[in-house]
Amino acid sequence: MARLFDSVRYLKGVGEARARTFASLGIETLYDLISYFPRTYEDRSKIVPIAELQVDEPACFRAFVTSQPRTHHIRKGLDLTKLTVADETARLNLTFFNQSYVAGNLEYSREYYFYGSLNGDYMGYQITNPIFEPVEQPGVLTRRIMPIYPLTAGLHNNLISRTVQQALDACLEELPEVMPLQLRERYGLCDAPTAYRNIHAPASFEALAAARHRLIFEEFFIFSVGLSLLRSGRSRKQRQGYRLPPMAEFEAALPFSLTGAQRRAIDEIAGDLSGGSVMNRLVQGDVGSGKTVVAAAAAWITAKNGQQTALMAPTEILAEQHAKGLEALLGPLGVRVALLTGSMTPAQKRNVRAAIAAHEADLIVGTHALISEATDFSELGLVVADEQHRFGVAQRAALAEKGDDPHLLVMSATPIPRTLALILYGDLELSVIDELPPGRQNIDTFLVGEDKRARINAFIRRQVAEGHQVYIVCPAVEEGEDESLRSAEAWAETLQMAVFPDLRVALLHGRMKAAQKEQTMAAFARGEYDILVATTVIEVGVDVPNATLMVVENADRFGLSQLHQLRGRVGRGSDKSYCLLFSSNRNPETLTRLKALCKTNDGFEISRQDLALRGPGDFFGTRQHGLPAFKVGSLELDLQTLQDAQSAAAEFVSSEELPKRPEYQPLMERIQALFASGAPRGEA
Ligand code: ADP
Ligand code: MG
Fold this sequence. Notes:
By secondary structure, the chain is of the alpha/beta class. It contains 25 helices and 23 strands.
């Protein structure tokens, strides 16, 4: 009897080489193999009369071979085998390319099931390379719903399907049931063995739907229980509430007055901090809505209570900028700000770390890695993670482990609809900043083609002449295989040499040394460059109010939300700002996508469209949201199941002793595995 976690080598037909190929797909054990779900299915179950076959619609039909198969040698490397088949409705020509062995497998006057798709030209209709089986044989390749697996070189679909079947036969009985029985009954979920059988080899589409429903529910349930446990583990923790200093003192130090939404968010945070338990809050606000000052208020309250704040940014550029801005804001209020970045010398880092340990700094700004690694705080009271969508769920949990249960504030500009945010970040309280600082104007956005290049260059020149600055974003760093992509390096050079020899052009991309990146960014912020040619390293957070024009090259290569973030780099001051999207892509879908951006500046509206247009696969890529990837479920299509799973999870977790019972051990193991795999997200 095979065990669930035995190697796939146990299976017939899997030798060392094949095991290695499976391993490259992350499949090592029988359990891995049966958890490798089909990407889609082909309906080979319905039998269609030949006369009703449709061009380009693959279908299954039953027919007699009505001519002796003949193979013609056309030239070296090309053999054609031709024959005719017929049922009671019509005759049909079949052609096989380089499969002369079929001549031996298809016998004249015998009956077979075929599966293929009709193609036609002026010579008549035919089917090329159909799949076939004798009618007497069990339906392995025809007369069934065929699973189609994600493939890799060296593993064809039939092989995977056959091997999965073997694995199911060998180990299905041992599959632990992770779903509690009472939930299976309440939500009509089939048991685990049935679900695994039918996701791989569904007897009917109803059986497939039931299997999918069970597995989607399971996936969302595990995710939700995991999040709830994270939350309940933290929120039950008590903490001495902070004494709140008079907020008027803070507001008086600001160069502007707070918006209503900012004040509301700060109030909510102050309430958390002064309450008796650990804060776990997400501040969500569109680009430019002024989240930094909200974090500053939290850091100020924390400092006033004699504790330290760690503020983590996803990039060094952003960390540097935050340190400067917060120093200017909070320094006069007596908050000592320190910066910790990777480009500092080891001696500098040692000094800063010593100062942090000695509590000579109240607010420490740095990149995630630097703060979470070897840094010891004297008294860490608050952790702020900026642009939280760049961090994974697991990373967030790891942060919370730093220090003695610090308060946690995460900030995100990823504009996802509020209902969805509540669902996804169910483990966080939510503050929404749904109001922009006054005086902000819409950023006029235009989709332009190469024919406008000269006019755009003149426009860039005019912006610079008026004393403003310009960003130009390219999809690639250097010239690569894809010649249609503009590269930042080459384009910066062209612009400086040939187009704007009299202007100051700078280059910024992720492959530059950190120190060099910072210098360039700082010089641009000081107005020492007119034009910054960059990659998406400037996507998040960068704040240079004097920049009024954002030009995006090959705009079709970026997602809507990403373009919206990029556009958010301008319009940060009081001057009229513009965004120009270059694209020569005429694909109607792409045009719809880009035009959506020209029509609105509302990030939430854009995210709704993005979600609708691209589907959740892209939109909720782990990279964007730091969520574990769902294998079967879709956050867009299976929202109802997600909600059911969530309420089931909440109930399950709240019934104290339940999760601790031994029968839920498999469930707890799955949760641990899911949250352990949330790898850190890299920088673009
Ligand atoms: P984001 O939410 O994108 O992080 P920032 O915190 O960087 O936004 O703020 C964007 C810009 O708006 C900054 O230049 C900031 O100084 C300014 N700002 C923030 N709040 C206000 C306000 N209430 N009134 C005017 N300007 C503000
Ligand atoms: Mg920001």
